[in-house]
Design goal:
Low-confidence stretches: none
Keywords: Cytoplasm, Histidine metabolism, Hydrolase, Iron, Metal-binding, Zinc
Structural class: alpha/beta
Strand content: 15-25%
Function: Catalyzes the hydrolytic cleavage of the carbon-nitrogen bond in imidazolone-5-propanoate to yield N-formimidoyl-L-glutamate. It is the third step in the universal histidine degradation pathway.
EC number: 3.5.2.7
Number of helices: 18
Radius of gyration: 21 Å
Bound molecules: N-(iminomethyl)-L-glutamic acid, zinc ion
Family: Belongs to the metallo-dependent hydrolases superfamily. HutI family.
Helix content: 25-40%
Shape: globular
Largest sheet: 8 strands, parallel
Main location: cytoplasm
Length: 426
């Protein structure tokens, strides 16, 4: 047969283990690396994986020479707040002055400031802005991602955000999973009437299902936002309507959102900086993925990070995400998060790769399609301009992607200007 594409001369091919369940314990610590591999691609899918020597005798329409570089599955970013109006650079000085995140929110800033800008923005404007950020994510190697609403807090604006996500799914070939986060903050008019507000947001579940606007429902369970009991009721209602569940849990105070996520069979519990020992123990028993967001802890200037070591060593499944948003983590760069995971969460390179591929895919219900490179799967991969897989967390703050492919097609490639060029005067 003649393949569409043969990708050969791969220095290291990263092959995370595929499994029906997220990787935990010893499985998270292992990563299969092939140093003599080639891929055959047909109709956008991986049709063959073999050795470089075998690849020499295969016929193909196109041959891509990986020049001895690293090839991995396309990265998966399982937690982003991609669609929003405005920006919040004015809050940086408040953060520098030590005003806590929840205090800024309580004063009507933070999330509520972005809610104001998002309400004002037209759908097309939100779409253009989100497209810009999404394209930048692709440039950093992401081929599957999640995007949340949550900057509307009223029916019209939440649905406007979700429709933007739906348009992004239609426009871009990458996989985008949508999450309804109408319960992201308490709008000013509903202070003390949180249940009433949650009932209003739950009232949108049917239209969201009917218009296929979201796969998951999420809530910010935190001091001054929504309580455990409110979160339980809201998520239970979402589950009954057939949504997958996510929860912003134990980010600042240990309310028990981690335990709630496991008890409801949520796909993920996210943040978990303050997760209790008992919460971590329960994570080891279920299949809820702990989605850790070290970029947020870094950006909020905190010293205490999520206890990834304890989670992994005790057998929880851990994934990593950017949490890209305009207030608490303003970066599209998942590679930077990989470095923070190494430096601040003390995760090994093997754990980090599993956390941004296979486990991240499990956290958004995409594990059968994304996060690894088996025969039959969509040919979503990245060629990295690095000598080995440990190099990306090590050399931080820059983009190591050379080219990014989805379904066998090149989506993005570094321009010659992205290469370091010295003038002849040097
Ligand atoms: N913590 C709650 N929500 C977002 C922040 C959103 C914002 O500050 O705009 C998060 O995951 O970090
Ligand atoms: Zn978030």
């Amino acid at each position: 047969m003649t393949y569409d594409v043969i990708l050969h001369n791969i220095g290291q091919l990263i092959l995370p283990k595929t499994s029906d369940y997220p990787l935990k314990g010893q499985d998270m610590k292992e990563l299969n690396i092939s140093e003599d591999a080639a891929l055959g691609i047909q109709d956008g899918r991986i049709a063959w994986i073999g050795s470089d020597a075998q690849a020499g005798s295969l016929k193909s329409t196109e041959r891509i020479d990986a020049e001895g570089k690293v090839v991995s599955p396309g990265l998966v970013d399982p937690h982003t707040h991609l669609v929003f109006g405005g920006s919040r650079e004015h809050e940086l000085s408040l953060k520098q002055a030590g005003v806590p995140y929840l205090e800024i929110l309580a004063q009507g800033g933070g999330i509520l400031s972005t809610v104001g800008s998002t309400k004002k923005a037209k759908e097309d404007e939100l779409f253009r802005k989100a497209s810009f950020h999404l394209e930048r994510m692709i440039s950093y190697g992401v081929t599957t991602m999640e995007a949340k609403s949550g900057y509307g807090l009223d029916a019209d604006t939440e649905l406007k955000q979700l429709r933007v996500i739906k348009r992004l799914k239609e426009k871009y070939p990458i996989s985008v999973v949508s999450t309804f986060l109408g319960a992201h903050a308490v709008p000013p008019g509903f202070k003390g009437k949180e249940e009433e507000f949650l009932d209003e947001m739950a009232g949108l579940f049917d239209v969201i299902k009917d218009e296929e606007l979201a796969e998951f429902v999420d809530i910010f369970c935190e001091t001054g936002v929504f309580t455990i009991e409110q979160s339980r009721k809201f998520l239970q209602q979402a589950k009954e309507k057939g949504f997958g569940l996510k929860i912003h849990a134990d980010e600042i105070d240990p309310l028990g959102g981690t335990e709630l996520a496991v008890s409801l069979g949520a796909a993920s519990a996210d943040h978990l900086v303050a997760a209790s020992d008992e919460g971590i123990r329960q994570l080891t028993e279920g299949n809820t993925v702990a989605v850790l967001l070290p970029g947020t802890t870094f950006y909020l200037g905190k010293d205490h990070y999520a206890r990834a070591r304890k989670m992994i060593d005790e057998g929880a499944a851990v994934a990593l995400a950017t949490d890209f948003n305009p207030g608490s983590c303003v970066t599209e760069n998942l590679q930077m998060i990989m470095s923070l995971a190494a430096l601040k969460l003390k995760m090994s390179a093997e754990e980090i790769w599993n956390a941004v591929t296979v486990n991240a895919a499990h956290a958004i219900g995409k594990a059968s399609q994304a996060g690894s490179l088996d025969v039959g799967r969509s040919a979503d991969f990245v060629i990295w301009d690095v000598p080995n897989y440990q190099y990306i967390p090590y050399h931080y703050g820059v983009n190591h992607a050379q080219s990014v492919y989805h379904s066998g097609k090149k989506l993005w490639e570094r321009t010659p200007y992205g290469e370091i060029q010295f003038s002849s005067a040097r």
